[in-house]
């Protein structure tokens, strides 16, 4: 009978249970996605330049475990908020405490384990999809990665089973020990929210000062190194907490005292709701803001490394295509590239010497890259006369030649002298195009054909081909790109879900407030607008603070990235879309809880 009543109660709140179950499924799926990377040490070592990347991911596992644990707590709180009144009614009808405890234990544990199993299956699918999508869209090369990871599956199952076992025990013992009346009235007991104005003001100033110090330290990382990082970490974490604990509440109090704004519509009610709620949400909002910044930063830095690849390629390779024995390549294939530079240097080769017509270099000087600083290069040009006089400049030409030509003597002679030379004829052709990335596939085909036409290049160094340079840098940095995008999206999904369930767990206590407002004649449109504003602030403020953290935090990467802020709108857009989806979903569920549906 008790089980039947429980199933009836669940059926009556099926929509809420679907949301809860889907949230738990996503939590376990995201956890598995992360662990599929974190436990694959071969993948991490083969696809990253950071030697300590495995240790970093172990720390990330600890961090994700903490976030997941907090997330499960809020999801569990949402579950108990939905069911505790039903449990109280069962006890009023004479159900024994032991039976109620068993029912709660089984319900919590079974829902959790079932969600974990479904989540792992979903995680397998998502990991495969994300891996294929990222490797295709980002054109990155990753090795030793597999969506199916037995170790990750075991860790996910054990971790979630332990958490849900603890949650089931806590839920069962808590409900049984509480008096029936307190269970029935739990959602109607507000927490006190009294703050002294003077204390609030000084806490707000202190919080802003801490954030300012942290932001300054992040701009001084290159000068102060580890000291700046430690100070920035401490001050920004503490400043973020005080921002929600005092600064935001102080601002809301000022808004409530502004009659022109507070007395418009239900603004005063909305401000009061936010002031009351934020004091209870300080920790979760601080956590969301900090980890929002970490997740957004991960994607932004990953994108930054992607932007560095073509820049580093352009700084390394002067020509987009180099053809040895270019007479073997059809001219129309080169013309199809619409080249901005297409120069051919005739060669005559003997056993000891390679001869060039120096007038061809006078007409189209040889180009070379010279480093001017730690990461900057400039293009220099050598005429035929300069190459003939300065042996050191000939090295720029040797880099473009075949291996057997590089070791020979080089002579730059007049057209008449060149015609008189008896030797093997060939040609060296260099090409530049207007847009390397747009023509990359065509250039790669021609570079491959050049390798086939010149077998000795396989044994030598063909790093002079720009496509080879690009592929090399892409293979070096693609691991950072993949991990940045992969983990950033996973963390954001987890954090947005965590905030959503925290808001929904307090929805039951707001039912009476909205019911009273509706009974005294407040229009439903005003109530829904108030809900949108309230939840909008709870989502928007930690997101904006996280964005500010990222904007200052990118200063720390100026030594690794030439333009860390380039195309920053891309990760911001990704985060906005995902964040907005959770915002809309939270409004929909919250409105359904606090307001009765219209007939």
TrEMBL record:
Protein keywords: Cell membrane, Membrane, Transmembrane, Transmembrane helix, Transport
Location within or outside the cell: Cell membrane
Claim: Transmembrane helix is one of the keywords in the record: yes
Top-level lineage group: Bacteria
4Fe-4S in keyword set: no
Transmembrane segments annotated in the record for this chain: 14-34, 54-79, 100-126, 152-177, 198-218, 224-255, 284-305, 482-504, 535-556, 568-590
Alphabetized InterPro entries for the sequence: ABC-4_Integral_Memb_Prot, ABC3_permease_C, ABC_permease_BceB-typ
Residues covered by the ABC3 transporter permease C-terminal domain: 62-179
Membrane topology qualifier: Multi-pass membrane protein
A Pfam family the protein falls into: FtsX
Family: Belongs to the ABC-4 integral membrane protein family.
Protein name: ABC transporter permease
Organism of derivation: Enterococcus viikkiensis
Taxon lineage: Bacteria, Bacillati, Bacillota, Bacilli, Lactobacillales
